[in-house]
Amino acid sequence: MYVCVCRAVTDKDIRKAMEEGATTVRELKEKLKVTESCGSCLESVRDLVKQHHSPQAA
Ligand code: FES
């Protein structure tokens, strides 16, 4: 599923980037350019980061 339509970034791309070491929205922004255009994906990116850090994600 596309999270960032502007940059054609999917939830899979974001999860992969986090597995490779990105831990914050800022790092995902630097790596994948998410949130840089319209910014409407910010909440979704934040949610994915939260999920990644939640104990249930392990
Ligand atoms: S949807 Fe991500 S910047 Fe527009």
Descriptive overview:
The chain has 58 residues and is mostly helical. The chain has one domain: Arc Repressor Mutant, subunit A (Orthogonal Bundle), CATH 1.10.10.1100. The chain is 50% helix and 9% strand. It contains three helices and two strands; from the N terminus they run E-E-H-H-H. The protein has a two-stranded antiparallel ribbon. Strand 1 (2-4) and strand 2 (9-10) form a beta hairpin. The longest helix has 12 residues, at 42-53. The protein is globular, with a radius of gyration of 10 Å. The site of FE2/S2 (inorganic) cluster has 12 residues, from loops.
Instruction: Determine the mean pLDDT.
Output: 95
* Biggest sheet architecture: 2 strands, antiparallel
Question: Which percent band covers the strand fraction?
Answer: 5-15%
* SSE pattern: EEHHH
Please give the domain count. Answer: 1
What small molecules does this complex bind?
FE2/S2 (inorganic) cluster
Architecture (CATH level 2) name? Orthogonal Bundle
- Class inferred from helices and paired strands: mainly alpha
Instruction: Report the CATH topology name.
Output: Arc Repressor Mutant, subunit A
CATH class division:
Mainly Alpha
CATH homologous superfamily assignment? BFD-like [2Fe-2S]-binding domain
Outline, from the CA principal axes? globular
Strand order of the largest sheet: 1-2
Radius of gyration: 10 Å
- What's the helix count? 3
What's the assembly state of these chains? single chain
Q: Uncertain regions: pLDDT < 50 for 5+ in a row?
A: none
Q: What's the total count of β strands?
A: 2
Helix fraction by DSSP (H/I, runs of at least 4): 40-55%
Q: Give the termini distance in whole angstroms.
A: 21 Å
